[in-house]
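S1.2 Input.
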Amino acid sequence: MFPLRLEEVSFSANGRAIIERLSLEIDAGPASVILGANGAGKSVLMRLMHGLLVPTSGAVLWAGGKPARQAMVFQRPVMLRRSALANVTYGLALAGVKASERAPQAREALQEVGLLALADRPARLLSGGEQQRLALARAWALHPRVLFLDEPTANLDPGATREIETVIKAFDAAGTKIVMSTHNLGQARRLADEILFLHQGRLAERAPVDRFFKQPASPEAAAFIKGELPWV
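S1.3 Output.
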């Protein structure tokens, strides 16, 4: 499945270039965090890697062809008008899991994210943090080899953010490759092994997390760490 390669990838919408001739290679293992200001192109890049968007030019290539066992969690997860448990079992059904195995696997996933007690509650009545944990439970149940996370705590309070980060660390510890976007410097420090710094649709810098924050190599990254880049 790995490496995932992006070769000269560009993406434009409504006549505006969002990603410009970006090339990189993602391997299994270390957690990769895509960091950058709002408007840098992080969400679009995540969707290109996951396959939800097709590049305007260039190529997104998985080793061995079409990827298997990948999942993505968005800023605002889509909840079905069903219980928390049914939201997870539905995802398992789409993945072809046997009917007799869906409920046990779904309950195990809800347990992992701390939502088993709310299994029968309508998903749309859950709090924002609980809905995001439910989205992570849907991913957990599928045991993905790679998990894409697009600003998963952007709209959450500090307590809910800590809960989500705990689940993300559990994915990482279980061997799932984490690829996550954020504009939160503290979160990047806590969760990343490596930083991919995106600036105006271009990969301005890639470095291990400690080196990135101590000795940023690009002026754009240095300015962002100091809070000097405009958030557009």
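S1.4 Remarks. The helical segments are 42-50, 84-94, 99-112, 128-141, 158-173, 185-191, 209-214, 219-225.
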